[in-house]
């Protein structure tokens, strides 16, 4: 086993909880997918509104914890020293993990409350995607500030700052600050939704995208030996485009909450530009590494990095642009086309990032001096997840097209048109496909768990080979 800094031990704590919550996300997602087929399933015990909420919130939390793990893992490599305030960092992990457990129990057994201050603070805020009670919101911001302190204090103590660390420090402030926007309450629904989107869209798609740029830059330098100048050059462009276009990209949501109609066109164009620099960074790194025949000691991490580049481009870029164009979004907004985009974008941009980082950590723990970290089981999980995700995305896309036509263009978007469209075979049959591919994805997750638990434990002599 390679030497572990305290910072990397904290990273492993976050990675462990993240991979468990990944399973929880999939479990509740399967239940929700089946409830589309059979709405009576678990009705009165665990209704769709709760399973969907748990599915989405588990996804957000496990991805965030994986990113935090990545931050603590790269910190010693970038600064040349251990983290400052390790005990505080472990305390933050414990508090965040405990808070997640308490919130999930409340979601499962209490679910709703009266429309009063007590419910807002201790049960749920009742706002879609950010349902967590107020105390949990404040806890998330506090954890972000502790992580910022850990990184900033370590950088100051080391007397060294790199391009990756500079971007990380700025992004961590934005990560804490933008989440506060979701705590505002106004009686005007347009104002309320305006700030709500700053969390739901900008917090996730801007600050997360930049953070992933930092983590992917570190991953490329570690796995492929990519020169820092390539990584940091594209990362600076990523920051410029994400924060420069991210706010304007919000406009394709603004139109639907009562703001002027010009936001629809502005948002549809600018929201599609965000993932381009990150894709270019990875393509450039692969091109540079091609001179050395893509030599690597960590094959699973390398292939998850490939997936991240192309999944991000197609999921966030192509799929996002496809249905945010004003002429299309006028009919497609809120249909299963949005779910199709969301599944592919989150899987490609964020899930792939976290899995790659975990394999990088396993390389250091189990095979620091070699051999190549490789197995057959990661390939089964990798292919299974890609095939099943493409199946789910395709099924949702077909359902979304049908909704757009039958419910919006032909019907006129009334409540009765929604019900009619849901019963149409072009919508109901894809729900069956989505559930079936979801089962395959869950089985692939179990294979991934097995591989993470076993890869690298059997030491064999091997040379570095082209990927």
UniProtKB/TrEMBL annotation:
Pfam families in the cross-refs: COX1
SUPFAM superfamilies assigned: Cytochrome c oxidase subunit I-like (SSF81442)
MF-aspect GO terms: cytochrome-c oxidase activity; heme binding
BP-aspect Gene Ontology terms: aerobic respiration; electron transport coupled proton transport; respiratory electron transport chain
Name of the protein: Nitric oxide reductase NorB subunit apoprotein
GO cellular component entries: membrane
Residue ranges crossing the lipid bilayer per the database entry: 12-34, 54-75, 91-109, 135-156, 163-184, 196-221, 233-256, 262-289, 301-322, 342-362, 382-406, 431-450
Keywords per UniProt: Membrane, Transmembrane, Transmembrane helix
Domain of life where this protein originates: Bacteria
């Amino acid at each position: 086993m390679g030497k572990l800094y305290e910072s990397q031990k904290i990273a492993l704590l976050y990675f462990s909880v993240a991979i468990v919550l990944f399973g929880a996300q999939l479990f509740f997602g399967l239940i929700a997918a089946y409830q589309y087929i059979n709405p009576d399933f678990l009705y009165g015990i665990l209704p769709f509104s709760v399973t969907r909420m748990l599915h989405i919130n588990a996804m957000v939390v496990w991805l965030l914890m994986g990113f935090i793990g990545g931050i603590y893992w790269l910190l010693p490599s970038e600064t040349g020293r251990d983290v400052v305030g390790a005990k505080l960092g472990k305390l933050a992990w414990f508090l965040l993990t405990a808070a997640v457990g308490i919130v999930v129990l409340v979601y499962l057994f209490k679910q709703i409350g009266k429309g009063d201050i007590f419910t807002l603070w201790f049960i749920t805020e009742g706002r879609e995607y950010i349902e967590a009670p107020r105390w949990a919101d404040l806890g998330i911001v506090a954890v972000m500030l502790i992580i910022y302190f850990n990184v900033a204090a370590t950088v100051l103590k080391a007397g060294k700052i790199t391009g990756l660390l500079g971007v990380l420090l700025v992004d961590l402030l934005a990560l804490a600050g933008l989440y506060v926007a979701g705590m505002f309450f106004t009686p005007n629904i347009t104002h309320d939704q305006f700030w709500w989107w700053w969390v739901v869209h900008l917090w996730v798609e801007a600050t997360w995208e930049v953070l992933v740029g930092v983590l992917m830059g570190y991953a490329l330098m570690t796995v492929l030996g990519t020169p820092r100048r390539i990584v940091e050059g594209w990362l600076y462009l990523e920051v410029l485009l994400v924060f420069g276009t991210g706010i304007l990209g919000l406009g394709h949501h603004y139109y639907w909450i009562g703001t002027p109609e010009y936001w629809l066109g502005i948002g549809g164009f600018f929201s599609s530009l965000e993932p381009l620099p990150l894709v270019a960074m990875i393509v450039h790194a692969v091109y540079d590494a091609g001179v050395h025949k893509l030599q690597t000691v960590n094959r699973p991490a390398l292939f998850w990095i490939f997936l991240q580049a192309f999944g991000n481009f197609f999921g966030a870029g192509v799929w996002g642009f496809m249905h945010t164009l004003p002429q299309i979004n006028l009919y497609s907004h809120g249909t299963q086309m949005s779910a199709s985009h969301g599944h592919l974008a989150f899987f490609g941009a964020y899930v792939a990032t976290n899995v790659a980082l975990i394999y990088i950590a396993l390389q250091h723990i189990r095979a620091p001096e070699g051999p190549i970290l490789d197995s057959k089981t990661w390939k089964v999980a990798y292919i299974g997840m890609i095939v099943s995700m493409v199946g789910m995305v395709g099924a949702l896309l077909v359902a979304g097209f049908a909704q757009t036509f039958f419910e919006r263009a032909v019907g006129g978007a009334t409540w009765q048109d929604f019900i009619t469209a849901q019963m149409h075979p072009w919508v109901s049959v894809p729900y069956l496909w989505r559930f079936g591919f979801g089962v395959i994805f869950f089985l692939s997750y179990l294979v991934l768990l097995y591989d993470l638990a076993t890869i690298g434990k059997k030491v064999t002599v091997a040379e570095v080979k082209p990927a």
